[in-house]
TrEMBL record:
A molecular function GO annotation: nucleoside diphosphate kinase activity
Enzyme Commission numbers on file: 2.7.4.9
Pfam families recorded: Thymidylate_kin
NCBIfam families: DTMP_kinase
Family: Belongs to the thymidylate kinase family.
PANTHER family: THYMIDYLATE KINASE (PTHR10344:SF1)
Record key words, sorted: ATP-binding, Kinase, Nucleotide biosynthesis, Nucleotide-binding, Transferase
Pathway(s) served: Pyrimidine metabolism; dTTP biosynthesis
GO process terms (BP): dTDP biosynthetic process; dTTP biosynthetic process; dUDP biosynthetic process
Domain Thymidylate kinase-like: 111-288
Protein's name according to its UniProt entry: Thymidylate kinase
Cellular component aspect of the GO annotation: cytosol; mitochondrion; nucleus
Top enzyme category: transferase
Length: 341
């Protein structure tokens, strides 16, 4: 009967002769093998427990270098996790309460100027120069013609579609808002962001070319991340026109550029505004810009100056709110694009 059966490997062998048990080495029994397997499983469980406790302890010791720490931070909405190259850096939404000691933030540098002023070339040269000197650099430009909003802007500038003046201004402003999370993440992780045009272009073109109230134009960009410095490549409309001539896009006309040039002067007294003589040769301009930019990058890193917002110099709002507004605007822009198509 079942209670009297001896369920050993030898007994199983006698019960099921069709499935012959493999021969074991001399001096080794199935009982020995089972005991060894159980011991190995116990060791694996102990190793798993040790790894888990070690990963938890790294929260306090390593400030985020362990895999468990990164996983916890990514799961928590109160943290912004950004990996830059081979380095991992973790920052809270509010820099005032960093993890174990936040790394110095990067600088946000903007280039402004008329069409054909040479600002795009200078922004590219500065990005390359800072990279050569070991800085982490991210180069962006506005308008960003690759996204859904950018496609609308590109069609507008090429005169394929029309908008009212105020709709046009909000369209360009929304394009800048779409990039805020990306800019914020880069700056807080120690990367210097270099932007070819920013909100100052929006104000100058909408108030100068379209005749909208300047303060109203500024209001749409209120709350954007404020740059640490702005390099304005100062070239007169006539000089810019003599270089290559203006193109065929909507604002590329001499008279419009004159009005935009006058509107840019509104910012000339601001402490962050650095006018660069754009009539000098390209290498001289690049050298001057590079020296001043390195001073800004070093100053920001040394002082760990807080990130502020445009026009009101207020502390930067939480990244979660920026992400939420960006997601809403992104969904709206996609909807507008689909309706126009």
């Amino acid at each position: 009967s079942a209670p009297h059966l001896n369920w050993t490997p030898k007994r199983c062998h006698s019960i099921i002769p069709a499935r012959r048990m493999p021969d074991l080495p001399r001096g080794c029994s199935w009982d020995d093998l089972l005991r060894t397997s159980s011991a190995l499983w116990c060791l694996l469980l102990l190793l798993l427990v040790w790894l888990t406790s070690s990963g938890a302890a790294s929260l306090n010791r390593q400030g985020g270098s362990g895999l468990l720490f990164q996983t916890l931070c990514k799961a928590s909405p109160g943290y912004l996790v950004q990996r830059v190259g081979s380095r991992r850096s973790v920052h809270r939404e509010q820099r005032g309460a960093s993890c174990v000691g936040a790394m110095p933030r990067g600088a946000f540098i903007v280039f402004e100027g008329l069409d054909r002023s040479g600002k795009s070339s200078q922004s590219q040269r500065l990005a390359a120069s800072l990279k050569d000197k070991g800085h982490d650099v991210k180069a962006i430009r506005f308008p960003n013609r690759e996204g859904p909003l950018g496609q609308l802007i590109d069609a507008f500038l090429r005169k394929d579609i029309d908008f009212t003046k105020r709709t046009c201004h909000h369209l360009f402003s929304s394009d800048r808002w779409e990039k805020q999370c990306e800019i914020q993440a880069a700056v807080l992780s120690g990367t210097t962001v270099i932007s070819d045009r920013y909100a100052f272009s929006g104000v100058a073109y909408s108030s100068g070319a379209e005749g909208l109230p300047l303060e109203w134009c500024k209001n749409a960009d209120s709350g954007l991340i404020a740059p640490d410095t702005v390099f304005y490549i100062d070239v007169s409309p006539e000089e810019a026109n003599r270089r290559k001539g203006y193109g065929a896009e909507r604002y590329e006309k001499l008279e419009i550029q004159r009005r935009v040039y006058s509107s840019y002067m509104h910012f000339s007294t601001q402490p962050y505004w650095h006018a660069i003589d754009g009539t000098k040769d390209i290498d001289s301009i690049a050298a001057e810009v590079c020296v001043k930019a390195e001073q800004v990058v070093s100053s920001v890193a040394a002082s760990d100056a807080p990130v502020t917002t445009l026009w009101d110099n207020a502390p930067l709002q939480q990244s979660a709110k920026v992400a939420e507004s960006t997601a809403v605007e992104g969904a709206s822009s996609s909807s507008v694009t689909s309706r126009l198509q």
